[in-house]
Each structure stands twice: as structure tokens, then as C-alpha cells.
């Protein structure tokens, strides 16, 4: 479908999306990074803009050109991403209604980036890189006391506690359905996700199962959307109770974006 064939149900809304993967500098030529392509965040920005929202995409090392109608703010590392997010959230032009943190943010960065290239000296010992923790940007947004967007969405990429043994399976066999909660790996993925939702304080968590080469860098994605349980359900199941609000089967990242 052409984008202008979509309903303009987000007209008048301001949406902030982060995409890609941060790169934490080690020295002028090297970084610590991850496998995020930025395509899921790119699809979220595209779909929100096509549905009429004013969209800013904070893009960490994303190769794609800007989706039509989207303002792109390029960033490199986690601290730049955090500063860019804060400046959008505090923009005098108006409050942000929804933020979607699709970016893969490095949890740790080298304590100091070397100013000159780290050299491999003959007979020298391998260098030891000291890491320090990056700020948790999503938790920071969700716990804001001023200008907290009404809707804060996080992503969780989980492999589960153990890898599926796939006894007797060959490489040609299809992977188990990535939203099937009866699969033991998926049950563990969902338990991690439930804890993450409570810890982060967000309103929706997009749970991606990323074992066996899923999601990262792939054109397609499947996800379970997890939200805090309604008040009546929490009374029975505890303060951290969560509920699955949608299961999105493997398909184009734009389809998952529309569901989010
Ligand atoms: N995130 C963030 N800032 C960080 C790390 C993560 O904002 N420093 C956001 C991501 O953009 C994502 C969500 O938090 O929306 C979950 O990221 P994830 O790496 O799954 O969560 P962590 O709490 O870092 O847990 P883990 O130990 O599984 O990496
Ligand atoms: Ca992490």
C-alpha cells in the first residue's frame, strides 16, 4: 500500500523513535558495537509518519536514507543518543506523545577512548579494556517527572537462559515459531521480559527472540508485545504482573511497526 493510503490516526501526535546500534569508541579507528541494522526503528518511523505523526528518528549508525517525512538526528555512541533524546523530549516546540526505544544501546563503554591508535607491540601483552556502565536511557525516560511521554515503548532482545537443543533437528528444519510461549526457550524469554518491563517502567515492551540468528540484521521480525497488567489483574498476580497484548508472527518489520 502507498503510505498515503494509511489512516491518519496519528495526526497531531509527536513521536520519537531511536534506531540502530551505538558504537562506543576504543580509539580513533575502533569501537565496541552490536549487530543492529536499524531497520526495525526505521520501519517504526516510516509507519508513524505515514499515519500522520510528526516523527524524529534518532539514528545510531544506520545506513538507510531517511524515511519520507521523518526528521533524522544521527548519533554515534550511547551518550550522544541520550543527549539527542533529551533535546527532543525537552524541545520547546511541544511535548512528545510517544517514544519508541528500538535502538540497541551498549550497556558498557570503554572507560576512556585512547586518543591515538592502540598499537600491537612485538611481544607485548594483550591490552585490557576497562568498561564503565552507560546510562539506561529508556528507564530514565520512563521515570521522568517532567515531560514524560504518555507512551514509552521499549524493546527486549532475549535469547532465553539456555539455547534450544533442537534434538534431531537439521539446519534445513524450520526454526520454532518465535512467539510460541509453550516452547521452553520462549517461556524463558518471556520471563526475562516480564522482569525487564517492571524494571524499566515502560508501558509496552516489544519482545524479540534473538537466538538462532533471528531479528538482528534480518528483513523480517516476530515479536510478543508485553504490557503491565491492568489494575484488577495486578491485585491477583502481584505488582509486576504483565500481560501479552499481541503476538506478531514473523513478517516484514513494517507490519510489526504498525502493531506497535
Ligand atoms: N536501553 C537503554 N539504555 C541502555 C540500555 C538499553 O535505553 N543503556 C533500552 C533499549 O533501547 C531497549 C531496552 O532498553 O529498548 C532494553 O534493552 P536491553 O538491552 O534488552 O535491556 P537491558 O536492561 O540492558 O538488559 P540486558 O542485560 O538483557 O542487556
Ligand atoms: Ca542491554
Automatic annotation (TrEMBL):
Pathway: Cofactor biosynthesis; coenzyme A biosynthesis; CoA from (R)-pantothenate: step 2/5; Cofactor biosynthesis; coenzyme A biosynthesis; CoA from (R)-pantothenate: step 3/5. One of its GO terms (biological process) is coenzyme A biosynthetic process. Transmembrane segments: none annotated. It catalyses: (R)-4'-phosphopantothenate + L-cysteine + CTP = N-[(R)-4-phosphopantothenoyl]-L-cysteine + CMP + diphosphate + H(+); N-[(R)-4-phosphopantothenoyl]-L-cysteine + H(+) = (R)-4'-phosphopantetheine + CO2. GO terms for cellular component: phosphopantothenoylcysteine decarboxylase complex. Binds 1 FMN per subunit. Its EC number is 4.1.1.36, 6.3.2.5. Residues 10-161, 188-234 form the DNA/pantothenate metabolism flavoprotein C-terminal domain. Its cofactor is FMN; Mg(2+). The keyword Transmembrane helix does not apply. One of its GO terms (molecular function) is metal ion binding. CTP binds at residues 107, 117, 135-138, 155, 196, 200. It comes from the Bacteria. Keywords: Decarboxylase, Flavoprotein, FMN, Ligase, Lyase, Magnesium, Metal-binding, Multifunctional enzyme. Residues 15-260 are annotated as: Phosphopantothenate--cysteine ligase. In the N-terminal section; belongs to the HFCD (homo-oligomeric flavin containing Cys decarboxylase) superfamily. In the C-terminal section; belongs to the PPC synthetase family. Catalyzes two sequential steps in the biosynthesis of coenzyme A. In the first step cysteine is conjugated to 4'-phosphopantothenate to form 4-phosphopantothenoylcysteine. In the second step the latter compound is decarboxylated to form 4'-phosphopantotheine. Catalyzes two steps in the biosynthesis of coenzyme A. In the first step cysteine is conjugated to 4'-phosphopantothenate to form 4-phosphopantothenoylcysteine, in the latter compound is decarboxylated to form 4'-phosphopantotheine. This is Coenzyme A biosynthesis bifunctional protein CoaBC. It comes from Nakamurella leprariae. The gene is coaBC. The chain holds residues 182 to 441 of 458 of the full protein.
